[in-house]
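Record type: ASSEMBLY
Status: queued
Input:
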Amino acid sequence: DIQMTQLPSTLSASVGDRVTITCRASESISSWLAWYQQKPGKAPKLLIYMASRLQSGVPSRFSGSGSGAEFTLTVNGLQPDDFAVYYCQQYDRYPRTFGQGTKVEFK
Amino acid sequence: QVQLVESGGDLVKPGGSLRLSCGASGFIFSDYYMSWIRQAPGKGLEWISYISSSGYVINYADSVRGRFTISRDSAKNSLYLQMNSLGVEDTAIYYCARGGVAGDYFFDYWGPGTLVTVSS
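Status: finished
Output:
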């Protein structure tokens, strides 16, 4: 199975900050990577697919980059609604696997 | 708008069985791959199974293969997960999620989830 590792596990930030989350795959997955946001008690929400393509309706302050085995999710100008847990997911091969999550919390 | 709603979650004893359902609306259900993804309490996400749009191609995670069976009924716009030989490790929120029209890639819509608790 492809292992997905996210760094950091927890990130303390303030409104207006620029935050970056890293996701590393145990082998190359080309650009077959998605990012999700999950709030407490809610289902995950797709933010980014194909490593850098913004899902319809997602604010442009979210962006993704990377290819191969290293990827980043960046939020430019963190908003109160952005405090949540973020997951990466590879869809290069089965089983589909997710990172362990990064919690973005108030500093 | 696209809606997915799971049902069937319950408290069940170890070794028991349960059938989850997911009702879909707002899109052409028969065009899309569908998946089940679960999340143990306080833990991360685990993909467990997908079924192709036709229903002919199916795949499972090793953790559930041989115990769980995914199926779909396009006439009823519904996805199902039959879960047998349940263990405490199967305790989780179970989400149905929509994949793509050409494959099970990323998941653009998710249901709110249904809670399965396996406990004696």
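Annotation: Residues 12 and 105 of chain A are 5 Å apart (CA to CA).
Annotation: Chain A has a mean pLDDT of 97.
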